[in-house]
Design goal:
The protein is about 25% helix and about 20% strand.
Length: about 350
Amino acid sequence: MKTSFRNMIAGFVAAVTTASCGAHGYNGPTSDHFDGSHFHNGAPIEHKLGDLWRWMTTRENHPWTRVERFDAPTPPPARVENGLRITWINHSTVLIQVDGFNILTDPVFSERVSPVQWFGPRRYHPPGVAFEDLPKIDVVLISHAHYDHLDRTSIIRLARRFNPLFVAGLGLETWLQKAGAGRVATGDWWDTIALPGAVQLTVTPAQHWSRRGLFDRNRTLWASYWIETSAGGVYFAGDTGLAEHFNTIRRRLGAPRVSLLPIGAYEPRWFMGKQHMNPADAVVAHQQLGASHSIGIHFATFKLSDEARFAPVDDLALARENAGVDPAAFCAPAFGAGYLFD
């Protein structure tokens, strides 16, 4: 074993073991995706330690180039009363502005996505919208407990500055409250969450898994979200592999005006395939949903897998061409890019 790899594993184990990072869990009635203490997918996602060893010792790892500074676009407006505006900030952090309402998804503004800030995946690009330039946030959607989607420092900052409503899957209520969230709502797949005004929220399925510590795997629920607005439905996929839930969502809720679909962290496929879509999978999901427009997320920010930094952009272009999808219907955004649907 190479020393660097040994140190990496030792550092990760030490960080997870010593950090107060467990996501608690949920206990309740069983369902088709819950056995009373642990959640599960229809198609199990199981990786053993040997799989991790195989990946680390056989990987074709493409290096990334870090961007320390960039000229950010004009910050988003305070509110959008007419139409729908969507701004990609970074990774799975998206600002959705509609009906005078501001919704933020999976907020990550920290330098690293890890239990500690001295170790773990470091960002390769500044946020497309600085935390200080955010408009007042009314609702924060959390897709699941992984560190690149649930960042404690960002939750603390948002709670202190805006006191938004935090919405998450079952099992994360106590964790969010301990992080300072004053208002929390959690739900199971297909639950509806009451929001003020014309916006309606439904918790929807995803194919993924959850963990923050050594002993809490799949103790909290992963989810996607459907946001019904006067400008049409907005679907936030969170983090997911390609599975039947896209067809189910279309059947039950209709076709979204805009879908936010992950397109990164997909190589090698034998390891990532069930939990992360690649761009070709994302195009299939776009078609199954019947989305008028899709925007790619979950790429070019944190190096979580082996593909080159902008391979998702190139692979999305190829997948669109092969599927006959108009490039204007499914884009990979630039950091901080805002899209207005009126």
